[in-house]
Amino acid sequence: MQVFLDFLRRYNYLFLFLILEILSILMLVRFNRYQGYVWLTGANAVTASVNGVYTDAVAFTELREVNRDLTDVNIRLQQENRALREALADAKYDTTYTHRRVLDELQGYRLIPARVVGNKIRVGADNYLVINRGSKDGVTAEMGVVSGGGVVGIVYLTNRHHSLVMPITHSKSSISCSVRGQNYFGYLQWDGANTRTAYVSDVPRYAKARKGQVIETSGYSSVFPPGIFVGRIHKVSNASDGQSYRLDVVLGNDFASLRDVSVVATPYKAEVDTLKRRAEFIDMNNDN
Amino acid sequence: MFPVSIQYFFFAVVLMLSQVLVFNHIHILGYAIPMPFVYLVLMLHSSTSRWMYVLWGFIVGLVIDIFSNTLGENAAAMTFLGLIAPRLLDVFSPADRGDDGFIPSPHTMQWGGYVRYATAATLIFTTLFFLMESFSLFDVVRLCIHIASSSFLTLLIIFAIEHLRQNMARV
């Protein structure tokens, strides 16, 4: 306390100066119009500046809430974006010539729409697809599976809700195909080299096959109706037996990104199968 | 504390009256205003206490303000001059001054020391005064001309008074 009092006593002139100076300035801005106006303007500017800083600080403290709202909006927009992209992809798909042609060819057949829920596509492996339709939906083994890009494969096994599809990219797959506009047919098989290519074997040498021509299903089986797009000829070469052509085909489907497919329920498949079994039975009896 | 004589009191009254009635109306070229009442602080005895310097500066400034209708301008500048004047006096006073103190003048400080002391004090006062009057730095050049010319004119009057006082003392 004594130190404080000594301090006050020693520097009394400073306190007196401060008091008198403040008093002078108060008189200056109070009784002089010009100085009062300048003071008021300056004070207003300072007040506005302080208010601005305060407002910025308050806005900064509310950033967490704003950030959360933005995150919600972002997630919602991402979902919308995904839905729109899928719709756009479907819309593009519908307009392709191949898809329209496939649908035209499949008129009169019952199509069971399905979605690929399991996809194991590897080069050199025996690939399988799993679709989300099963026996409950009318899917049975040996039904054909197609998509917008053309033939996908054949149903291999079914259970109540799902089915296993043997795609073209399986070493045991063999589908009867022909060159569009010609009646010569062969069998589409896969050599495991590339998931985007396969080959047609046993095409007669007198067939006029050229690069770029369309390979489609021949209809010589009860699995696929005739005229379903398979792919385009990439290369024509001699088969190893030297008696026929081998046609390398670029497939219409990219199996790695396959999503929406349709199972083709051939209306007369049961009758055709019955006839085939009867023929086999008759052949067996004749042999005996 | 405050070695005021009757002579000093009358001198102060005369100087303030002169300021209010005469010097306030002089505006040479619209810039230079003589303000010799600064002299009332400069001529205080060196042993005057510092709070007395501050208070006396404030009173002189306030009186001039009241009669000049510039309330606060001279008071603020003179109060600051009252704070700083003892320090200036310490700086510019001769080294061989006695313990009893002295009244600042060319006689006690030599002309060189006194001129520096008076010039520094007057410049500080006029600077503060014109800053208070303009209350902004809108036209710095004009402000500097005001300060320089008014300081010069004020110093001329102060030195003239000192010269007269020295001559009267000799007589």
Tally of domains of chain A: 2
Estimate the helix proportion of chain A, in percent: 40-55%
According to DSSP, the number of beta strands of chain B is 0
Q: How much strand of chain B?
A: under 5%
Largest β sheet strand count, sense and barrel closure of chain A: 6 strands, antiparallel, barrel
Task: Summarize the main sheet of chain B.
Answer: none
CATH-defined fold name of the largest domain in chain A: Thrombin, subunit H
The CATH class of the largest domain in chain A is identified as Mainly Beta
Radius of gyration of chain B: 16 Å
How many H/I helices of chain A?
6
Largest sheet strand order of chain A: 1-2-5-4-3-12
Mean pLDDT of chain B, as a whole number?
90
List the helices and strands of chain B in order.
HHHHHH
Number of strands of chain A: 12
Residue-averaged pLDDT of chain A: 83
Mass-distribution shape of chain B = globular
Helical content of chain B (DSSP H or I, runs of 4+): 55-70%
Question: What does this protein look like?
Answer:
The complex is a heterodimer of chains A (288) and B (171). Chain A is an alpha+beta fold. In chain A, 41% of the residues lie in helices and 27% in strands. Chain A is built from 6 helices and 12 strands. In chain A, strands 1-2-5-4-3-12 form a 6-stranded antiparallel beta barrel. The termini of chain A are far apart. The model of chain A has no long low-confidence stretch (mean pLDDT 83). Chain B has one domain. Chain B is 70% helix and 0% strand. The radius of gyration of chain B is 16 Å and the shape is globular. The A-B interface holds A 12-14, 16-17, 20-21, 23-32, 34-35, 38-39 and B 49-51, 53-55, 58, 61-62, 65, 70-73, 75-76, 79-80, 82-83, 132, 135-136.
